[in-house]
Amino acid sequence: MEVKVYQNKVKVAEEFSKYLIEKSTIQQPFHVALSGGSTPKIVFDVLADEFSNDVDWSSIHLYWGDERCVAPDDEESNYRMTVEHLISKVTIPEGNIHRIKGEDNPKSEAKRYGSLLDKQLPQKLGLPQFDMVILGMGDDGHTASIFPHELNLWDSPDNCEVAIHPESGQRRVSLTGRVINNAKTVVFLVTGESKAEKIKSIVEREEGCLEYPASHVSPKTKDLVWFLDAAAAKQLTLNQS
């Protein structure tokens, strides 16, 4: 595990953009699963506005780690957010965009998207392998759309599952642990003081941390990187890179 701490959200976005460019230059085509949330929104803006000319978009294939079961033009759609903040600003082939169809039947879509991953991604250890999975983390320690009350979904034998938000009851299609942990690189993008307590528990492996889905992220390659701002990292006591 590598922990990178930067002054603020914008610096996190800039440094992650450089990291992504470096990785995607080495590996082509480059298959990446995106995250929703407020931090990726800033990252996408910075990547598109400041670094778009440094990326070979023809070799980038975009997927999603999770999606709310809403139409693609709905305000809550992770796909719509990515279109507004990244896809609409760069020149990427339409065939390189592989969205989760949140408007379709959730169970059917989870199965379809799981099959799509098997077809589109290289296979490693009998499973589809992303070059990079980008994750966020909620205040409750959830990641992708695997929430603490449905931690069993992390160990699902399927590539994707239908998850339920604990408060709203909204259904979501999410990658499962077997796909996330099979990626070459997994990156957490987490900012904000509200995440600091969970960050400390998970990164420092405190007692009880395993109740948080984010603590189960452990890629087989051991290539796990946390990009944090100072606020999110404020309670950490471990040495940081």
Count the beta strands. Answer: 11
Summarize the main sheet: 6 strands, parallel
Please, how many helices?
6
What is the CATH topology?
Rossmann fold
CATH class: Alpha Beta
Class by SSE composition:
alpha/beta
Strand order of the largest sheet: 1-11-10-7-2-3
Mean pLDDT: 96
Low-confidence stretches: none
Instruction: Report the portion of residues in β strands.
Output: 15-25%
Order of helices and strands: EHEHEEHHEEEEEHEHE
Fold and architecture overview:
The structure is a single chain. The protein contains 6 helices and 11 strands. With 241 residues, the protein is of the alpha/beta class. It has a single domain (2-229), classed as Rossmann fold. A 6-stranded parallel sheet has the order 1-11-10-7-2-3, covered by helices on one side. Helix 1 packs across helix 2. The protein is globular. The mean pLDDT is 96.
